[in-house]
DNA sequence: TTGACACATACCCATATAGGAATGTATCCT
DNA sequence: AGGATACATTCCTATATGGGTATGTGTCAA
């Protein structure tokens, strides 16, 4: 089997840095393809293809306006990623750092049975 | 150019569902490869390969114990993903839903200039 | 109608997969 | 020493990708 398609889910779609950049740009509001091309410094076909992937996983929506196509971010499609990773947030929070220190100390004390 | 290597960063490593599963299992504590093989229902070489990817992006660490290799989750390596996606959290929060409704109403009122 | 413009799609190609099967390596037991 | 156990690595193969280039499609302007 090969790697899962980029259009499989938000996780795969967002693994590509360019697509994260596009999302970041769209966070500032609706944009036409040409704007994105300029801001990304990428070829127009490449941008269009990245946008297609983002559309297929519903991370963006499109709207026609004359000969332009305005893309808009669909934030909620990122929720699955957020939900998954949020469960691990505690692992680098300050409170956890403290807990970690405490555990370290306990381990040390156990290792050397002769306390003080 | 081809797709970026799975070992490029946490984003790419975690795009594979099996590797997310492994991380979820390791969240319960250190485990030997054999345990993961049983719990994933995957072949041993496949699991070892997934673990290699996770090691290369420092999502896990290893420790030898006899002929076993105990893998442990390194949570903080997930922080970059969390940081990125957290910026969009507001887009599906309840408060945002409300704000969205308000904006909808405003737009409607503007469209039809003849108020009441 | 003709041309310019904005965007999408088709094609080409090098590359890195994920799983399967076989083999290598280190550790433990007797 | 010899075998069993626990993992890692190597080879294989089909497949999807991302960028580049060329071309198709729809819209506007004159």
Give a concise summary.
Chain A has 116 residues and is of the alpha+beta class.
Keywords:
homodimer; 6 helices; 12% strand; 3-stranded antiparallel sheet; alpha+beta; 116 residues; DNA-binding; 3 strands
Structure description:
The structure is a homodimer of 116-residue chains. Chain A has 116 residues and is of the alpha+beta class. Chain A is 53% helix and 12% strand. Chain A has six helices and three strands; from the N terminus they run H-H-E-H-H-E-E-H-H. In chain A, strands 1-3-2 form a three-stranded antiparallel beta sheet. Chain A is elongated and about 65 Å long. The C terminus of chain A is likely disordered. At the A-B interface, helix 2 and helix 5 of A face helix 2 and helix 5 of B. The structure holds a DNA duplex (30 and 30 nucleotides).
* Oligomeric state of shown chains: homodimer
Overall number of strands of chain A: 3
- Beta-strand content estimate of chain A: 5-15%
What is the element string of chain A, with H for helices and E for strands? HHEHHEEHH
> Helical amount among residues of chain A, as a percent range?
40-55%
Mean pLDDT of chain A: 88
Q: How far do the termini of chain A sit from each other?
A: 59 Å
Map the helices and strands:
The structure is a homodimer of 116-residue chains.
Chain A: H1 10-13, H2 17-26, E1 31-32, H3 33-40, H4 44-56, E2 60-65, E3 68-73, H5 79-86, H6 94-111
Antiparallel strand pairs in A: 1-3, 2-3
The structure holds a DNA duplex (30 and 30 nucleotides).
């Amino acid at each position: 089997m090969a790697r899962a398609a980029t259009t499989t889910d938000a996780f795969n779609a967002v693994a590509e840095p360019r697509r994260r950049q596009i999302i970041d740009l769209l966070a500032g509001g609706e944009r036409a393809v040409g704007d994105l091309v300029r801001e990304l410094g990428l070829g127009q076909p490449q941008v269009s293809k990245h946008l297609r992937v983002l559309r297929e996983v519903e991370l963006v929506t499109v709207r026609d306006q004359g000969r332009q196509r305005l893309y808009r971010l669909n934030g909620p499609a990122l929720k699955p990623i957020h939900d998954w990773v949020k469960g691990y947030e505690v692992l680098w929070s300050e409170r956890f750092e403290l807990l970690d220190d405490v555990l370290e100390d306990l381990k040390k004390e156990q290792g050397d049975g002769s306390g003080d």
